[in-house]
Amino acid sequence: MKESEENFILRRAEISDQVKIWDILQQAVQRRKNDGSNQWQDGYPNSETAIIDIQNKVGFVFEKDNEIAGYAAIIFDVEPAYENIEGKWLSEGEYAVIHRVAVSERFLGQGIATELFLKIEDFVKSKQVVSIKVDTNFDNVQMLKILDRLKYSYCGEVHFRGSPRKAFEKILS
Fold first, then answer.
1. Is residue 19 packed enough to be buried (19+ CB in 10 Å), middle (13-18) or exposed (0-12)?
2. pLDDT tens profile 113-165
3. What is the CATH number of the domain that holds 129?
């Protein structure tokens, strides 16, 4: 599966991408720490996370000019933590979940995360799914800005590993 527009490609991650994905995830973990965020400061994600995503065929890399610029897990399955939202989702039907969004340090400030989300939205629509649900930490300012910019609606709180998270949904048109 490849989707291309200009010099951006969203493709399913391969096991050979694992080292680069882990490097990008580690950079994102450090950025969260440097920003004073509690997100991803508890040993998750770890080096096995990308391998499991790849094996489960939910890991995707975002390439710019043939170089991996970002990573995300796109899951077309029920997210158990989303079943107990303190609030209300916009829809109750089939949805895609986006987890573990991370951008390489080399590509920061280039709008890569926004482009990645737009490609994910196109990919999800191509699967005839019209809802994307995502969550983030209350103090992940960068992700909150992206979700606002792309018109994701705040729906309430969900809990992951004992911590509350802001939950968002977007109905794709």
1. exposed
2. 999 999 999 999 999 999 999 999 999 999 999 999 999 999 999 998 888 99
3. 3.40.630.30
